[in-house]
Amino acid sequence: MQKILIVEDDEKLRNQLEIFLNNNGYQVESLKTFDNTIENILKINPDLILLDINLPR
């Protein structure tokens, strides 16, 4: 199963993406905090990352 990582600060959008992707056969992980984003990406090792380009600092 392919793993998709969602990095999105908008909770509603993140939840909708998770539901849609789960219903279409993907394993979904998402980040709700962005303090250690790079480390979390390396740990999760996703096949695809959906990244919000306007994340808070």
Descriptive report:
Strand 1 (3-7), helix 1 (11-23) and strand 2 form a beta-alpha-beta unit. The relative contact order is 0.35. It is built from 2 helices and 3 strands. It has a 3-stranded parallel β-sheet, with helices on both faces. It has 57 residues and is an alpha/beta fold. The protein is 37% helix and 25% strand. The model has no long low-confidence stretch (mean pLDDT 92). The protein is flat and about 30 Å long.
Low-confidence stretches: none
Shape estimate: flat
Helicity level: 25-40%
How many H/I helices?
A: 2
Structural class call reads alpha/beta
- The proportion of strand residues reads 15-25%
Mind describing the biggest β-sheet? 3 strands, parallel
Following the backbone from N to C, one meets helices and strands in this order, namely EHEHE
Mean of pLDDT:
92
Distance between the termini: 32 Å
Number of strands: 3
Strand order of the largest sheet: 2-1-3
Work out the radius of gyration.
11 Å
List its salient traits.
single chain; 37% helix; flat; 57 residues; three-stranded parallel sheet; alpha/beta; 3 strands
Which helices and strands occur, and which strands form pairs?
Blueprint: E1 3-7, H1 11-23, E2 27-31, H2 37-44, E3 48-51
Parallel strand pairs: 1-2, 1-3
